[in-house]
Amino acid sequence: MKTDIEIAQAAKKAHILEIAEKLGLTEDDIEYYGKYKAKIAPSALEGKSEKGKLILVTAITPTPAGEGKTTTTIGLADGLARLGKKVVVALREPSLGPVFGIKGGAAGGGYAQVVPMEDINLHFTGDFHAIGAANNLLAAMLDNHIFQGNALEIDPERITWKRCVDMNDRQLRYLEDGLGGPKSGVPRKDGFDITVASEVMAVLCLATSLTDLKTRLARIIVGYNRRGEPVTAGDLRAEGAMAALLKDAMKPNLVQTLEGTPALVHGGPFANIAHGCNSVVATKTALKLGDYVVTEAGFGADLGAEKFLDIKCRFAHLKPAAVVVVATVRALKMHGGLPKTELGREDLAALENGLPNLLRHVSNIKNVYGLPAVVAVNRFPTDTDAEIGLVIERCRALGVNVRLSTVWAEGGKGGEELAKEVVRLAEEKNDFRYAYDDALSIKEKIHAVVTKIYGGRGVVYTPEAEAEIETLERLGFGHAPVCMAKTQYSFSDDQTKLGAPTGFDVTVRQVKISAGAGFVVALTGNIMTMPGLPKVPAAEKIDVDENGNITGLF
Asked: Are 451 and 458 in contact (CB under 8 A)?
């Protein structure tokens, strides 16, 4: 059996101009990054309206058994193209941290991939490097301001801005820097976030133009002065230089699927520690160029979809036409308590115990957000007809259809039935609404997410979080939506609670403002903004030969 990278390397790719022409673009509308990658110039969209139907692909709570959300997203788009639809895929860019860590690449799998797979997973067009440079320029200007006399009276003990690097490196979580004497800076406690958790990433992904980008960058709060007042990037006069570094990174990247469907891959905040969606610019570009736009949001629907709907759609005034919830029988049996080693055998009892996880996600999409949904089951050879029948029966009770997906093995052909159901749903009117109103307090918004989406009982706040909320509301940030930083492995903040737990409280240990992005971040459990590498990193298997051919990516 061929690996993902072998399938991708064997594929015959079209020149990127051919892909652009499918969208009505000319050579003047794109900027080449070799034969198979390009950026779309903003001028290419002048006079075009957002006419496309937006399809969101989300999933059940992740397990080590895998769900295949990105693979389904790509296969669905290829399936829609086979039905004669003008379709665009809109995905996030992979972070180098997971690529070299445990998760691997994020360009799909099997015969449902975006290519060039190696480039997309490794550096791509340099967007993440630009984001890291802008983040660290702000950090350098902040510390230099203090070193040069500190006219803004910044309190070194209340600096909130961190440096970043796009790598899983736990060694950098907590540091002391500025050591070495008076000429080497001002000693203080510091630390690094992974680039995808940087507020600069969130700002780039929510900005609608370079002007909006500069405005948002200027609002970023880097710390507080000795009077307790916020100090911003604008106070440091950093936003212009930061925007200059991000000028090209703001432009969406155009690539293709294995079947030649146009794909925009742009931006990539994590969904467990950030808002988990590709850029607003890419999504709106796709809506102007295609009749159907298939996008995804990170991890399970309690994280990625919630943030896509409550944050991205709220800010960008987007309205999804339909939602696909991806599941596998194997993952559901794992939620039902079956060990990973036993997933290949039929076990209806374990499946029955695990199904509430899927049903809660589906119910949230339908009943909380008012959106039509379809369940896409990635079928494995070991799935029995009885198991598939049980999933169909339980979903039908919620008024939701199930469609089997075999896109990993068959590409777009394996996604045609799912595509037909998506087209049917997208033609219906829906009553899209948010999980909470802007007018609610920060605590009321967090409570709404915990009780409505997670199925929890309530929220517990540490004294530090209580004080931070009071400060943020006093400073006028009470109107902002909330971005929950939570484990992806459970509806709760305890990753060991599988399935659809009830009766639990979520503990919020820290609350901070991302003023440039426009949302409040609530950190729960032991979630960290700088991951670490596993005992055996994926990087150990990645190699390149003397001809430049990469192996070991998956």
From this structure: yes
Q: Sorting pLDDT into bands at 50, 70 and 90, what band is 182?
A: confident
The answer to whether the beta carbons of residues 229 and 211 sit under 8 Å apart is no
What's the average model confidence in pLDDT over 149-168? 96
Residue 234 to residue 139: CA distance in whole angstroms: 13
First to last CA, the chain: 13
Strands (E), 408-475: 458-461
Quick count: other Cβ atoms within 10 Å of Cβ 247? 11
Ranges assigned E (strand) in 41-85:
53-59
Tokens of 527: 């979630």
Tokens linked to 181: 């004497």
Bridge-based pairing of strands 30-32 and 38-40 is antiparallel
Q: Taking the mean position of all CA atoms in its chain, how far away is CA 209?
A: 20
Beta strands per DSSP E along 285-426? 292-296, 322-327, 373-378, 401-405
Q: Which residues are catalytic?
A: 69, 71, 92, 103, 271, 299, 380, 408
How far is 233 from 206, CA to CA, in rounded Å? Answer: 17
Query: 252: which DSSP letter?
Result: P
Q: Quick check: 378 pLDDT over 80? A: yes
Structure tokens at 231: 């100090």
Nearest residue to 93 (alpha-carbon basis) of 193, 18, 166: 166
- pLDDT of 320-332, one tens digit each? 999 999 999 999 9
Name the residue among 176, 170, 120 with its Cα closest to residue 530: 170
